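Troubleshooting: if your tokenizer reports a length mismatch, compare against these two reference records.
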Amino acid sequence: MSEILRELLRVSEKAANIARACRQQEALFQLLIEEKKEGEKNKKFTVDFKTLADVLVQEVIKQNMENKFPGLEKNIFGEESNEFTNDLGEKITIKLCSTEEETAQLLSKVLNGNKSAAEALAKVVHQDVAFADPALDSIVINIPQDLIGIWVDPIDSTYQYIKGSADTQSNQGIFPSGLQCVTILIGVYDIQTGVPLMGVINQPFVSRDLNTLRWKGQCYWGLSYMGTNIHSLEHAICKRNGSEKRTENSSPESEASSAFSAVISTSEKESIKAALARVCGDRIFRAAGAGYKSLCVVQGLVDIYIFSEDTTFKWDSCAAHAILRAMGGGMVDMKECLERNPDSGLDLPQLLYHRENQGAAGVDRWANKGGLIAYRSRERLETFLSLLVQHLAPLETQA
């Protein structure tokens, strides 16, 4: 349903405005951070945090979508609990109230009575946002509303968001850390099959005006349903170091002969890094944030995003997966890929989004248990996998 995608783009931009507004004043921002409790934490981190921006963004997305599409809220799932605790120990449920004044009163409780800060945030929360993309005007698609679910990661790479580094230098267009790694992720999937259908990735912090110190962002989207595939980068030419980068229209011959590039987590296993070094040489990039690393693949900055651990979740991957599907790519279970016989005729084990992991508790119910690989070209992925398996085998024997 193209109307749903239009609304998701609009609310993602409103969410980006909230993320930017919360980061404008450092003193205020420190009031907005809270450590996550057991059951909410990502086991990858010794200490895991959420911010008021995370919770506000999630609730704004849920409430706006419910207002526009009644009944949809029950199928919107997010990373964050909407409870926040202030300095007095009061547990406050964050929600979008019907008026700006009521929302300001609620936020004032979280902000320990800081009325001016609460009013400023409430204004952004209730501010109407216009977002248009002419490419969407030509789409007329009817996806039954009762068949869709939505995964929301309100602010991915919360650590980078809290740290707030604005002067990180990119490496061939890829930022290893900093605010540029922060993304807002909204993924729509079929609740019966688990297949991703629509995705929106909003990057709130792309460039900063050196005079006003205000940030501008960028939004990416894709739709893949019943043979219709369209995305925001359809007519874009990705550039890298000022030269044209390979696009989806490159010939298979030129793709097969070019070296692979990959983006990975700094916490990736040594065995995977060693095998990747043999496949990619020095074209391995490290970056923060699962959403941002996936976005690097969407943008064509790298061929592959690979992560072998089970500490990414459905809300981390659904949005980018939908966009990559629209581009002819996808996101697969890494463990199953490495165990799969390429001559078996079996399809690639795409990640699915409608079932929780049996026997798991807390956030682990929705973990991507086998790790993941994001890619833009199936042919490139198949070649990459064959090389990776070859180089992993001797390493495992040595171990």
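Reference record two:
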Amino acid sequence: MATRTHFVLLLIVVVIATSVQVHGTLSPTYYSSTCPKALSIVRAGVEAAIKKEARMGASLLRLHFHDCFVNGCDGSILLDDNATFTGEKTAAPNNNSVRGFNVVDDIKAQLEKACPGVVSCADILAIAARDSVVILGGPFWKVKLGRRDSLTASRAAANTSLPGPNFNISSLISSFSVQGLSLKDLVALSGSHTIGLARCTVFRARIYNDANIDASFAQSLQKKCPKSGNDDVTKPLDFQTPTCFDKLYYDNLLKKKGLLHSDQELFNGSCTSAESLVKKYAQDVSAFFKDFAKGMVKMGNIKPLTGTAGEIRINCRKAN
């Protein structure tokens, strides 16, 4: 009898433990019953935004990245400042730089009509990032869902957690390592710079001070980005195909034509492991796509709020 009771108790413990584990795990089918049209609604919103402005794909992808690297993928980057905290939008890496908030607002409004209070803003960012990559020609991956939204944001955390455009290779590796991401993840995810634009103020130091840069490439950029002024003039991160998700970012690095100092650090003679990956991706787009997709899934799983933590915001810009 004692043995049977012990077995029943053990079974109860196992069931509870299993249910807790499942409850806190992200899943691609999280909204299949609660909001079956969630994925198609997000996709339609992203398609419309990119049709209006091709650059928006890169902007939405960057929003997800900048969200996840600051206290996890919790939608905190979307929060406006309020009386209790200063949010992440005006942090140095984000100020006058991150964009796409109106697109997220529009998608959220459509989701609230279809299934009120169900789909989180953090999940919208994760889905929109994937859809942006696919629409611009990149790989597809199943987005794990079930994140909840934070109640607060931190400008200070954004200032310290996001890798900067002037980082060297060791700083980049450390920045990604803190998030549980490997060197391979770093090099593959940096390939997101195959799309999008950067401001003069971000690459000015590189085109005037770096030795590891093609001379004619630097001179062409200096014509648009002087030593002072024109801070907000933008140039493509991949000068060849800035609205096509392909492998040319890595081709550019091999030719010393990376726009950002941090980009070229992946191929600068100081890290053979990074350089071998750059060469691999430049030669094999399928290898790049495979590793990029894996890296995005890993990044999307950085410290998500699940279960009863956080909330499902009704308005992505403010807590309920």
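Descriptive notes for reference record two:
- Strands lie at 197-199, 234-236.
- Confidence is low (pLDDT under 50) at residues 1-23.
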